[in-house]
Amino acid sequence: MLKKSSKNKYVIENDKITLYSDFEEEFEEIVEKDKLKKIYTSVFFNKPFDKIKIPEGIEKLRLGNGYNQSINNLPSSITSIFIGKKFDNSIDNLPGNVKKIVFMQSGLFNKPIDYLPQGLEYLVLPNSFNYPLNNLPNSLKILELGDNFDKELNNLPDSIEKLVLSNNYEKEIKRFPKSLRILVISNNYRYSLPNSIEIRKMI
């Protein structure tokens, strides 16, 4: 099923709706709203979601490269969020059911993250991010950090199973998570690494 609004404000394809820059109406006006599971925003869409009132039932949110508004009032049904280039707002008040947050690698996000959802399992941060990580949820299993990150990593939750660091990371990690199985790190990293984990070195 492919349906376009009369003024090309949105496109619905199966369970996905893509919002364009002229989208203004509330979801209540969309007949198929109860069937929707995914919201994508186009590169030019940049309207606050608290005015649009996203319906419960949406599970996946993908923000386009032009989006840079608050995402503090999302429905509790959302479980995964993909964030584009220009976004640089707080993510400390997301729904508790969110399990996956992925930033575009070249994204501009660089804000403290101290209150992430307690069920979060997968977190990919952009190259621009460079704040301490001392309060990550104990549910986190996969953590990927970008090129600019240079803070100490001695207080990561023991739940982490895979840790990906950039070629630029040079700080000594004195305490590794107990559940860590895979570490991706620079071939030039000069500190000792545990023998109990799989080391994947980048050239």
How does this model look, in words?
The structure is a single chain. The protein is mainly β and 203 residues long. It has two domains: 1-129; 149-203, no CATH class. Helices cover 2% and strands 22% of the residues. It has one helix at residues 49-52, and strands spanning 2-4, 10-13, 16-19, 38-41, 60-62, 80-83, 100-103, 122-124, 142-144, 162-164, 182-186, 198-202. The chain has a twelve-stranded mixed sheet with strand order 1-2-3-4-5-6-7-8-9-10-11-12, with no helix packed on it. Strand 4, helix 1 and strand 5 (60-62) form a beta-alpha-beta unit. The longest helix is centred in the N-terminal third of the chain and has 4 residues, at 49-52. The model has no long low-confidence stretch (mean pLDDT 92).
Question: Which SSEs are present, and which pair or pack?
Answer:
Blueprint: E1 2-4, E2 10-13, E3 16-19, E4 38-41, H1 49-52, E5 60-62, E6 80-83, E7 100-103, E8 122-124, E9 142-144, E10 162-164, E11 182-186, E12 198-202
Write a brief caption for the model.
By secondary structure, this protein is an all-beta fold. Helix content is 2%, strand content 22%. The model has no long low-confidence stretch (mean pLDDT 92).
